[in-house]
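Lecture notes, continued. The same structure-token format from the folding unit now serves as the input rather than the output. Read the line below as a description of shape only.
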């Protein structure tokens, strides 16, 4: 499958490389074609990896992974172009983290809205699926080498049931997420985005970002 990854940071590199390992063709998008980080990622990942602008990547991808920093997400998607997003599944991993006052970050959207909702509202013809935003990027693509019963729980939010099932079947399951809870429509992304403050504080308290949340029931 042709897949776009928007963003050249740690999350984009980790997701893009994991998609290559699953056998997909991946184009990494950034503000401008020839981005140094994107070119380095292509060099490291072989023939199924390519890079270009946000628009280039979005036009290429049947599925688009949104791996940008939260405060730049909507601008990146506008640069990608609504016509290139229409009808496609947008896997939104971004979070509305505000680092303007240092650590720990606060949320610049919360409670009565979410970044996932803002993406869906701005691009109504896209199929936004919010998921994977509650764990470190290495954990996103490897839910754990322990037994299945010891792995964490992943959530999905979105208005399109088929899009959510596709994301679970094609990406979450191969990456080891054997316990997935569908929270409902895109408004439920408020809940997963608001997990980030406790995630950050757990990381600070333990000195370890390689963990996930587990719903015991």
């Amino acid at each position: 499958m042709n897949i776009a990854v928007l963003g050249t940071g740690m999350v984009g590199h980790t997701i893009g490389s994991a998609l290559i390992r699953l056998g997909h063709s991946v184009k990494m998008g950034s503000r401008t074609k020839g981005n140094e980080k994107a070119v380095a990622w292509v060099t490291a990942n072989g023939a199924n990896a390519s890079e270009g602008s946000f628009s280039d990547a979005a036009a290429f991808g049947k599925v688009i992974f949104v791996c940008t920093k939260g405060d730049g997400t909507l601008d990146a998607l506008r640069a990608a172009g609504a016509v290139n997003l229409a009808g496609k599944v947008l896997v939104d991993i971004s979070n509305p983290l505000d680092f303007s006052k240092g650590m720990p970050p606060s949320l610049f959207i919360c409670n009565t809205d979410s970044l996932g909702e803002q993406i869906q509202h701005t691009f109504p013809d896209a199929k936004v699926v919010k998921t994977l935003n509650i764990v470190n990027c290495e954990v996103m693509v490897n839910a754990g080498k322990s037994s299945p019963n010891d792995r964490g729980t992943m959530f999905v939010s979105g208005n399109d049931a088929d899009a959510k099932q596709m994301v679970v079947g094609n990406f979450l399951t191969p990456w080891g997420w054997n316990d997935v809870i569908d929270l409902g429509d895109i408004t439920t992304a408020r809940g997963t985005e608001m997990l980030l403050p406790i995630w950050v504080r757990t990381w600070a308290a333990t000195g370890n970002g390689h963990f996930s949340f587990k719903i015991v029931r």
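Point for the exam: Strands lie at 2-6, 25-30, 49-53, 63-66, 89-92, 97-98, 106-107, 127-130, 154-157, 180-184.
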